[in-house]
Structure formats: C-alpha cells, structure tokens
Design a protein that fits this description.
The chain is of the alpha/beta class. The chain is 45% helix and 21% strand. The chain has 11 helices and 10 strands. The two termini are 32 Å apart.
Amino acid sequence: MSRKIIIISHGAGFMVNAIANALKLKSFEVVSINPDLDELDGAKSNASYVLLYLGVYVYNNPEIISKLWEVCRSLELKVIAVGTDKELAEAGKYLPQGFITRQFTRPVEIPTLVQAFVQTEQADAGETRPRVLLVDDDPTFLKMIKNWLDEDYQVTIVSSGAQAMLYVADHTPNLILLDFDMPVVPGPKVLEMLRSESKTASIPVIFLTGRDDRESVLQVLALKPQGYVLKSSDRRKLLQTLHDFFQQR
C-alpha cells in the first residue's frame, strides 16, 4: 500500500507546513494542493490517504467536496478531516455518512493528527499489536517511553488528563500508562473519571509514578489500578511489566 497523503488546503500556511513536515518524519509521502479539481486529478495517482484541511473554500467551492467523494470512492482513499465545527458540518452536507474516517476540530495537536494516519495505516495492514495510551505531562519522558515501546505496541501519547479523556471518548486502548502526578487533572482523577463511565470503566490502567516510598506506593495501590511502574525503571523493566500484563490477560 502506498504511503502517499494528499493534503487539501487553501494555501500552505504555517500549520499545514508543520503537519506536512511531521508526516514526512513518519516516512509518509506528502503532496499539498489547493482545493482545485485539476490539482486533485493531478495528485491522486498512487495516493492512499487524504487530509482535508477545511477553510472558507468549503462554503465558496463546495464542488471540490463532491468531487473529492467521487475520487476517494473510486480509489478507496481514506479521508481525515480537520476544521472548525461549522466547516465540518458544512462539508458533511456534501458527503455521505461514514465517508470521513476521522475528523478533528481545530485547533488540533499535530502529534495526535499524525498518529491518526499511523493508526489508520496500521488498521489497513491488519495491525495486531496492543494499543497503549501513554499519558504524561513531561514531553521528554513521553518521547523516550514511546521510543521504548513502539516496536511492540501501538503507542498514542497525550500530555494531560484532559487530552486522555478526549482520546478515550473515541478510542479504546488495551492499556493506559498514566502519570500519577500531573497538573490540573492528576492521574487519580483521570482514573476516577474512567471508572465512572461504562464505556471506559474496564480499560486497564497502570500508573507511572516517580515516588517510590512506601506511603506513596500504598497511595497508588489504594486506587486499585492494574499495577504501577516507577518512572526511574529502565527499558527492560518497563517492557517486562507490559509483557507480563498482556500475557496474564
């Protein structure tokens, strides 16, 4: 399957360029075009995915939306859309139900958008690795742990409890690795919210904690997660913990 993504947007602004560069870092081939029928015809060859970055053109040039449906239907392209609530609603007037694979309301986190393409590609390839949601407010720690886990797991990263709750509203990971100490919405509060909703109550949670004194550990375990991992653990220890967890399940 081709890894070519067509980005359709009105001009290549800062955000569109940043998204394109982030996708290229994941080895996707990226072609950016304007919402123009001729440009779409010229770019569609060997494409597998479309990023529909909506703007005022959805009101001024709705025929591009209808044409997009025809092209994507005939070539079996997957479409991910980004726009304001009003833009997404307007585009929906010209598209059949279920045409858009995923959609995001602006502003959108670039890593989240890139991960959506990675997950879509993995799903197309019959990806079977367990899905792990990693939640931590430290970007350096997030990057390091993701690199450790990427070979064996499908890893999605978010940097706050609020983002974690938004993610699980649309996805069901096989495991959440959850930072215990976070600002605004700490790990225990996230776990409480997860357990209060029937849709998310059964998602397993393993806490990540930087505190290893007995009182702190007992505080973590009192919340009855599926386990905990010290943030000082090395790669081997973390991988073994996850391996044991999934083996037991």
